[in-house]
Amino acid sequence: SERMWSCITDFFTYETTKSVVVKSWTIGIINRVVQLLIITYFIGWVFLTEKAYQIRDTAIESSVMTKVKGFGIYNNKVMDVADYVTPTQGASVFCIITKLITTENQVQGYCPDSEKRKFLCTDDRNCTKHINKPASYGIATGRCVPFNAMIKTCEIKGWCPAEIDTINTPMMETENFTIFIKNSIRFPTFNYTKGNFLPNITKKYISECNFDMVNNTYCPIFRVGDVVRYAQQNFTNLAEHGGVIGIKIGWMCDLDKSDDHCNPSYSFTRLDAMSQNNTVSPGYNFRFAKYFKMENGTDYRTLVKAYAIRFDVLVNGNAGKFNMIPTLINMVAAFTSVGVGTVLCDIILLNFLKGAEQYKAKKFEELPWNVLCLLYYQKKQSPDSLKTVFLITITGSAELLGKLYL
Ligand SMILES: *[C@@H]1O[C@H](CO)[C@@H](O)[C@H](O)[C@H]1NC(C)=O
């Protein structure tokens, strides 16, 4: 039991490090400069720039409503929103159709395929290899039929007549259409809500403003032509082939500041960047059909191939607010890091300064095994004492190492 008691008294002890004060200008200045650098880094970057005293909410909740306005003229017909915007719900992703290829009065039946390069033929033998396989606009029957007075193509079974890719010019008025965006956001951690209609926006201003990067940075109405230009795209080219443009709304909020510092910032990019320089599949297009019934009950349809500019409204953001826990954690990290300077100073002190040997002896006198360890290394391994001293300096691991080697 005496042994156990000594065990207990051994446990309840406190060890403190013995300090050696070195009065040297060189090492003194290095020490203070290193400490100053570390403190500057923590105050300037970690606390002021990165705002490490705040907790952040990055799980932004958002809703987006959009509305397009404007009239265009296409094939001598006036086009309104219901004609050129799809889908019509006014969601965050919508398309403005800029070019149409329509094929009217299609019915189920047999007709020549309109893809002339691949399905051109002179008699049925050219078409037998396609029999019952998908052709361009239907399923091939294996027969060769006249396409017009000049040429013949393979026959298909499907919606007839087959679509003919005509050359149309895009609806240029699209450039002057406007997109109105209503965006509400919420940061759930702080239960903070805000919208992109800032309190200082009046009804009169909204009725006449257009967003621009300089004077009307908070106007929620965007001219299509401006959006395309801000995304560094050529409007004619985009309208011709179609494409996807991203309208990004960023909310970076510091909730320690007043409410009018939490504002949206808009930016624009082309999202389908790979289709720009791609000759195989440039741009963006899709097909849809409108179905009708004849009096005798047969279905017929109008097929539309639409080239469109798709707009994706993307909302992102985060908010920060002062909180005790991150402040404490980062302050502790800052104070601890100031101690990192001693590692550097120790290396210099024990190796490069005049009288390094004496300092070594002074520093390690209370831990004889440490000195032994040092000597052991210097004799046996290599004269590379810098490495050794660095090992010793990280006292904890050095202790372990020392015990292992002795
Ligand atoms: C767009 O509007 C401007 C000014 O109202 C007009 O000068 C221009 O011709 C319009 N552009 C198109 C393509 O209609």
Automatic annotation (TrEMBL):
Molecular function terms from GO: ATP binding; extracellularly ATP-gated monoatomic cation channel activity; purinergic nucleotide receptor activity
Disulfide bridge map: 111-160, 121-144, 127-154, 209-219, 253-262
Broad class of the protein's primary localization: membrane
Topological type in the membrane: Multi-pass membrane protein
Protein location: Cell membrane; Membrane
Gene Ontology cellular component annotations, sorted alphabetically: plasma membrane; postsynapse
Matching InterPro entries: P2X3_purnocptor, P2X_extracellular_dom_sf, P2X_purnocptor, P2X_receptor, P2X_RECEPTOR_CS
UniProt-listed Gene3D superfamilies: atp-gated p2x4 ion channel (1.10.287.940), atp-gated p2x4 ion channel domain (2.60.490.10)
Annotated NCBIfam families: P2X
Subunit structure: Homotrimer. Forms heterotrimer with P2RX2. Heterotrimeric P2RX2/3 has a ligand dose-response profile that is distinct from either homotrimeric P2RX2 or P2RX3.
Entry similarity comment: Belongs to the P2X receptor family.
Name this protein carries in UniProt: P2X purinoceptor
Native organism: Astatotilapia calliptera
